[in-house]
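At this stage, I wrote out one protein's amino acid sequence and its C-alpha cells, and that material follows here:
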Amino acid sequence: MSRFSKAALEGCIVSALLVFLAGCSAHPNDDMIAKNVQSKVAVDPATKDSAVIVTSKDGKVSLRGSVKDGATQQKLEQIAREEPGVTGVDDQVAVLPEPVAAPEQAANTPTTAPAPVETPKPQPIVLPTGTTLTVTVDQALSSDKSQSGQTFQATLAQPVTVQGNTAIPKGSSVTGTVVTAKKKGKIKGEGQLALALTSITIRGKNYPIQTGTLDSTVKGKGKRTAATTGGGAAGGALIGGLAGGGKGAGIGALVGAGAGLVGGALTGNKQIEIPAESPLSFTLSKSLTLPPGRE
C-alpha cells in the first residue's frame, strides 16, 4: 500500500470517528431534557403558574401535577413534544374542575305546594390526625442535590379507607416539599434531609394537606439520627430504598415512640439519598375533610 493510500485511509477513519462522536454529544440526555422542559414551562405565560414536575427517562417525558384547565394541559404537552430529543410524552397532569354555580331558585314558588320530603344528606369524609399516607417518590432526593423549598411529586402506594370505604384511591398524585436539605461536609458538618407532603389530588380535585416532617441527619463518622415531627407517636417511616443495590430494595422500617426514619442509603461520602420509587410513610398532622364520595 502506498503512503498516499495509507494516509487517505487513516483520514477517512478519523473523519468517521469525529462524526460519530459529534452525533453522540449532540443527543441530549434525560436530565437535560427534563431541565429544559421545566424551564420552558416556568417562563411560558400559559403554563408558568402550573404546579407541574417534569421527569425524563430514555427520552420519554413524564408530566405530573395539576393545571387550571385543558388548554394549559395541551400547552404543556406541546412544550414537551417540541423539545429536541423527546421520543414521547406521558401526560399524568390533573385538570382542576371548575366550580359549578348553583341554579337560581324559582322566584314564584306556589305556597300550596307540599313540603318536599327531606332525605338525609351524605356526610363528608373526615381523615383524622395520624392517618398514614404511604407514597412512592417520583424522583430521587438527597441531602447534597436537593434544595430547601423544592417541590417533589409522589404517588399514593396504598389506598386510604374510612369505615371500609375508599376515601383516597391508590395511584392518587401527591405533592411534597423539601423542608431542609443540607449537604454533609467531608471533614465536619452534618448532613440533613427533611420532607413533608403539602397536597393530594383525589379524583381530579386538589386538596391541601399537612403532614409530619420526616427528618434524617448524618453526622460524625456515618452516624445517623432520625426523627418525625408533627405527625403523632407512630411517625412516618421510610419503608424502602437502597440496600444491596437497586430501586425499591427493602431496608426495613423503623417506627417507634415518637420517632421515624427517613434517609434511604448513605453514599460513599455519607450523604442521605432517597432513590426514585422509594416508599415513604407520612402521617397527617391535621385532619383532612373530603366531600362525600364513592369507591
Remarks:
- Helices lie at 3-26, 30-43, 70-81.
- The CA atoms of residues 30 and 56 lie 5 Å apart.
- The two ends are 80 Å apart (CA to CA).
- The chain is about 15% helix and 35% strand.
